[in-house]
Design brief:
The structure holds three protein chains of three kinds. By secondary structure, chain A is of the alpha/beta class. Chain A contains 17 helices and 24 strands. The longest helix of chain A has 16 residues. Classes of the chains: A alpha/beta, B mainly alpha, C alpha/beta. Chains in contact: A-B, A-C, B-C.
């Protein structure tokens, strides 16, 4: 049978970068085709080519035996290709139904028919296993997972033949991921092809049929069987090397080390209450919990980005002014926020300016910037973290997710901090960069930095932290050394009392 | 460790290199000093990584390059000027254009800062009017020129401070705050002046507009000085850097430890200060302080900033672009008067030229930056 | 950046506060304007009309003053009303918005005032309002900007815009003829071009010049503000390297026009003003600028309008006229003020 979509020798160049350098891809109808590759390998560019957002400079795209050239996303949409982007492209102020029908509103004589739209939307949501989402609810008020579902419903509403999903599971809880997989299987049973992108190899094994691996803008392996290809082989293809230890080995934390961070009775009305913990120099403390459990809120409140309604935060014994980020930064804290792009980076500014942001005064004499010193120092840190491309004057926006995360980390390396707060430091980061980040966190701890880590991935918390705090519904419900816990136990604690046991 | 992945010679930490992230005491953060061999290597890499080290590169980067389209429009206007009016290319006419541009130009400098910092200032024209009125009351004039200048600057900065406080701490959107300031400054100016034009009797202030140094009016020097100071402030200081950061992504700037609110206030005070300077200039140029001064200046200034390539949403922009925008507007006015065209024709053509300028500008930028 | 020492920070903050207070106090002291000598023009009632009649309420509505002339109109009206013990003066909030003016006058009609004095923002747009008031039995004194229909007013009193242009043109023509200039370059700085009054003034100016065989050369419109006058004149002087005469429609914007002329150090021509502000008259008297004359369009008409409104409301005629009723239309003559006669007019000049 001829593949539904065939791409041959796709090339796409941006000024200074050859993002795609001869990519081949075959997608059959009714299969889940996984696209693997490190950040920067060209996955995002490739799906933008599929979705009609980029026009390839060379190569051919054949859809259902006919060569096509999409000049716009609308053209791809018309050909039955739907894309669920990593950054959801929903309109927050419109209702669920309006978003699902956006651009295809059922209408008669130019008047929209909201009741038809709502009925259609309700049917789609039911099919997706989420009948509880009201079609009239404003999308901005839904959870991230809920928005993901709406995005799926939108793709289904188009009767798409090919759906591209870019890291759909990144914002989902385990239960929701299972639900997503169920929907994917139903779709493929109906003959819809799915191009699935994820960094989680276990997911790919579970839902995928075939795997295509990209590296540096090229296809390095095509049509591998998803279930049987060994992990080591996949990683070798993606990185060109084999990784033996994902989590670095660590020395036991020194129980006699100075307490650097003391959080006492911290609370924020409606979010969390009674949070107390301490972190010693050289210790990594992990906060495990579901999305919405209050873990990110706790971190941001410790940092002063949210104003605490009760409790104190001390760094080396000195109480911090509540609700003041500058005070926290002066005391030696640093935060890598959860939403890299919206909370962490100046996307249009060059890398070095993003790195030097909290340490500007150090590169200034009487307020005047010493730009050469700044570029050199920032370049030193980014080189240490192997940020690619190495050109520090490139806009951060052109970097891949993993490299963007490294830029945020580099910022605090340059400034130097005694307490480092990490919120989902590896979300959307590829395997290679991930292990580099893990190694960096351990190295910083070894140098005496107190680290607080928030992550949705339990293995990450267990593998990286010395001590784990389990957060549920705004309370710390359990605290134990990481070595006394295993994944099942943590998941149990995290979800205990919820409907998903 | 991660070093396995590093391509040899490009990246990776040299063994034993002092890591810059060691925990420093809060009060005296040690500079990030990599080991000397590493530092040399990094600096070399940084230099190699900078593609535009040449003077030409710096020029292109400075705003003139990014505004080639606007320069083209300006040149085009000059060509039209030379072709249609024989007095256009005379020194005195060019100085007239610069003098006309000087006041709105000074205001545009302040507005550029505010817009790059993610805000908007609609109050500039009437804050200037208020400052001009306040500085030319009989009481103020009786204290002499120094007090008059001080008064104008203090009124401008004060109005900016109120704007900034309401925006940063009152959390009201800048559009509304500065619109309210526009209205109340107008009202206060009318109240103080009794809706009359207050004649400047102080000879020193009056002389500002008539004084020439080396044949060039003093107002043009003031304009140039404000632009120069503004340029340095925006492009060479931590203040400018923070302005771009706060305009580009206020949340990221806040989480990186910048005091966003204090900086926001500073931006509006700066804008107000520019209005204060402009107030003295216009009081001297028209020999009056009046509540009618500066009507619609906010729109002229914002239009100049936008056609100069500054993003209305903040975070990106150049001062040079804004100034080119001002010069385009003033040259248009001059051209029309030289050709004795009627006001209606002027207005139609002005609108058309604005659109054409922006079109050329965006085209040029797209083709130069890809 | 930030201050690690809270003590100095506190001191600094306090210092800043004290400084701010000091600046505030100084600035407050700077708002005072010496009360301008009351320049309101007041007519003294004569003969029988001086006797207090039936008490009447006179409503007054005018545009918001953004100009010395309009300010003088409002002042003169209030001052004139103050002269009469039998007149209650009720002025509504001045506004530059036609709909707001309609709403304001509507309230006066509802209140059943005895007479209305209206200087409309736009004569055409407020005509129906005038008719409404007349239909309600309230006599309307239409001030200056005329309504479209005579049914909308009882009496119109206003200046002569065309005549003002004629006066200016005649003065310019006479002067140039006396100097024996042939083919003179005559400039004109108009007010707001879209206003009918500006068009009428320019027409009168051009017509008068034609009778001398002259034409208007460079002509630009400003906006009745000093700022606009300065800007337009600075550019116009570049367009015309040599001028013989210049007429500026309005003495308020004339301040800016004169500033531009002195900044360009031009003295080869003479200038005629318009409206007759006190400031322009002082300049003419001092004779140290290019301003040699101004043609009046006096805001004293507001005083007369109030006097007329009182007479109409009390059913009285004008003293020196035979008729028992006030005439339906009174057009003021535009006088030409020069150094020779300026002392006669100084009292009528309004402060710009």
């Amino acid at each position: 049978m001829t593949p539904l979509l065939t791409m041959r020798g796709i090339v796409k160049e941006f000024p200074g970068v050859r993002a795609l350098d001869g990519v081949d891809l075959d997608v059959d109808a009714g299969e889940v085709h996984c696209l693997l590759g490190q950040n920067g390998a060209g996955k995002s560019t490739l799906i933008k080519v599929i979705a009609g957002a980029h026009r390839p400079d060379a190569g051919e795209v054949v859809l259902d035996g006919t060569p096509v050239s999409f000049g716009s996303p609308q053209a791809a949409d018309g050909a039955g290709i739907a894309t669920i982007h990593q950054e959801l492209d929903l309109v927050p102020a419109l209702s669920v139904a309006e978003n699902v029908m956006l651009g295809h509103e059922p209408s008669r004589w130019g008047f929209t028919r909201p009741s038809d739209a709502e009925a259609l939307t309700r049917a789609l949501l039911l099919r997706l296993g989420h009948p509880e989402i009201p079609p009239r609810r404003e999308v901005g008020r839904l959870s991230a997972a809920g928005q993901q579902v709406v995005s799926m419903a939108r793709a289904l509403a188009r009767d798409a033949r090919l759906i591209v999903m870019d890291e759909p599971s990144a914002v989902l809880d385990p239960e929701e991921v299972r639900n997503l997989f169920r929907v994917i299987r139903e779709l493929t049973a109906e003959g819809v092809a799915v191009v699935y992108i994820s960094h989680r190899l276990d997911e790919i094994r579970e839902v995928g049929d075939r795997v295509t691996v990209l590296k540096d803008g090229r296809t390095v392996a095509r049509d591998l069987p998803a279930r049987t290809t060994p992990t080591a082989e996949v990683i070798r293809l993606m990185t060109g090397r084999s990784i033996e230890y994902v989590f670095p080995e660590r020395a036991a934390a020194d129980p006699a080390a100075d307490v650097v961070l003391e959080v006492d009775g911290l609370a924020r009305a409606g979010e969390f209450a009674g949070v107390s913990f301490t972190v010693r120099a050289g210790e990594v403390v992990g906060l495990a919990g579901l999305v919405g459990s209050g873990r990110s809120e706790i971190l941001e409140t410790v940092y002063g980005a949210r104003r605490a309604t009760a409790g104190t935060v001390r760094v080396r014994g000195a109480a911090l002014r509540t609700g003041s980020v500058p005070a926290a930064v002066r005391a030696g804290m640093g935060l890598c926020p959860e939403e890299r792009k919206s909370q962490g980076l100046l996307l249009h500014e060059p890398v070095y300016r993003n790195v030097s942001l909290p340490a500007l005064a150090r590169f200034a004499r009487a307020g005047f910037m010493r730009q050469d010193a700044e570029i050199a120092a920032a370049g030193g840190v980014t080189a240490q973290l192997d940020v690619r491309p190495a050109d520090g004057t490139r806009a951060v926006r052109t970097l891949s997710g993993g490299n963007q995360q490294k830029v945020v980390l580099a910022r605090w390396l340059l400034r130097g901090c005694t307490v480092l707060l990490l919120d989902e430091p590896t979300r959307g980061v590829d395997v290679g960069a991930r292990s580099e980040i893990y190694a960096l966190v351990r190295r910083l701890a070894a140098e005496g930095v107190a680290v607080v880590l928030v992550s949705s991935e339990v293995p990450e918390v267990l593998g990286l932290a010395d001590r784990v705090l389990v957060v549920r519904e705004g309370r710390v419900v359990h605290e134990a050394p990481a070595c006394d816990l295993d994944e099942a136990r943590v998941l149990d604690l995290v979800m205990e009392g919820t409907a998903h046991v | 460790m991660s070093d396995h992945s590093a391509a040899p010679g490009v990246t990776g930490t040299a063994p034993g290199a002092a890591p810059p992230a060691s925990a420093p005491p809060a009060s005296s953060p040690p500079p990030a000093v990599p080991a000397t061999d590493e530092r040399g290597r990094i600096e070399k890499a940084a230099r190699a990584a900078e593609p535009r080290g040449s003077t030409l590169g710096r020029l292109l980067d400075s705003g003139v390059g990014r505004n080639l389209g606007l320069v083209a429009v300006l040149v085009l206007l000059c060509v039209v000027g030379v072709a249609t009016a024989d007095t256009f290319a005379t020194t005195s006419n060019l100085l007239t254009i610069l003098t006309s541009a000087s006041i709105i130009g000074v205001i545009t400098v302040g507005v550029t800062f505010v817009i790059i910092g993610g805000g908007i200032d609609l109050s500039v024209g009437k804050v200037m009017a208020l400052a001009s009125v306040w500085a030319t009351t009989v009481a103020t004039q009786s204290f002499g020129p120094v007090v008059m200048v001080f008064c104008a600057l203090a009124v401008g900065a004060g109005a900016g401070l109120v704007n900034g406080l309401l925006i940063a701490y009152g959390r009201i959107v800048p559009f509304i705050v500065t619109l309210a300031m526009l209205i109340s400054a107008q009202g206060l100016a009318e109240r103080i002046s009794g809706r009359r034009s207050q004649i400047v009797t102080d000879p020193t202030i009056a002389a500002i507009a008539t004084t020439r140094l080396l044949g060039i009016p003093l107002l043009v020097y003031i304009f140039a000085a404000v632009v120069a100071v503004g340029w340095v402030l925006l492009n060479r200081t931590t203040f400018g850097r923070r302005t771009f950061a706060i305009g580009g992504n206020p949340e990221a700037a806040r989480l990186a430890g910048l005091d966003v609110r204090r900086h926001t206030i500073a931006l509006y005070v700066l804008s107000g200060l520019c209005c204060g300077i402009a107030a003295i200039m216009i009081a001297s140029l028209t020999t009056t302080g009046s509540s009618t001064h500066g009507t619609l200046y906010e729109l002229d200034a914002i239009a100049a900033v936008i056609i100069g390539g500054t993003l209305l949403t903040g975070g990106r922009g150049t001062l040079i672009g804004s100034i080119l925008g001002v010069l385009v507007f003033t040259t248009i006015t001059n051209l029309f008067v030289l050709n004795n065209l009627e006001t209606e024709i002027q207005n139609i053509a002005k609108g058309v030229i604005i659109v054409i300028a922006v079109l050329i500008q965006t085209r040029a930028r797209r083709s130069s930056s890809g | 950046m930030s201050d690690p020492h809270p003590l100095t920070a506190g001191l600094r903050r306090r210092g800043f506060l004290i400084g701010a207070l000091g600046v505030g106090a100084t600035l407050t002291a700077c708002t005072s304007n010496e009360a301008p000598a009351s320049s309101a023009n007041v007519a003294v009632a004569a003969g029988d009309n001086a006797v207090a009649g039936t008490p009447v309420t006179i409503g007054f509505s005018a545009p918001a003053a953004d100009h010395g002339w309009i300010a003088a109109i409002a002042n003169n009206a209030a001052a004139q009303a103050g002269q009469y013990p039998d007149v209650t003066f009720e002025a509504v909030n001045p506004t530059n918005d036609v709909t707001q003016q309609i709403a304001a006058v509507d309230t006066l009609i509802t209140k059943q005032v005895d007479a209305l004095v209206i200087l409309p923002n736009d004569g055409s747009q407020l005509t129906s309002l005038g008719r409404k008031a007349m239909a309600a039995g309230i006599p309307v004194i239409n001030l200056d900007r005329i309504f479209d229909s005579p049914l909308a007013y009882r009496t119109w009193i206003g200046g002569d815009n065309y005549g003002m242009g004629v006066s200016a043109g005649t003065y310019v023509g006479e002067q140039l003829k006396a100097k024996g200039v042939t083919n003179p370059v005559i400039g004109e700085i108009a007010g707001i071009d879209s206003l009918p009054l500006t068009q009428a003034r320019s027409q009168g100016f051009a017509d008068a010049l034609t009778s001398y065989g002259f034409v208007v050369g460079p002509r630009q419109a400003a906006d009745f503000t000093a700022q606009g006058g300065q800007r337009v004149t600075a550019n116009l002087l570049q367009a015309a390297p040599k001028l013989d005469a210049l007429w500026n429609h309005d003495d308020d914007q004339g301040i800016g026009v004169l500033a531009a002329i002195s900044q360009a150090a031009r003295t080869e021509f003479f200038m005629v003003g318009g409206a007759g502000s006190a400031n322009a008259m002082r300049d003419i008297k001092a004779d140290n600028t290019v301003l040699k004359a101004t043609v009046t369009y006096s805001p004293s008409m507001a005083s007369s309008a109030i006097a007329l409104a009182r007479l109409v409301a009390q059913n009285k005629g004008m003293g020196d006229l035979v008729e028992k009723e006030v005439p339906t239309s009174i057009t003021l003559a535009s006088a030409t003020i020069t150094k020779e006669n300026v002392d006669t007019y100084l009292a009528l000049g309004f402060e710009s």
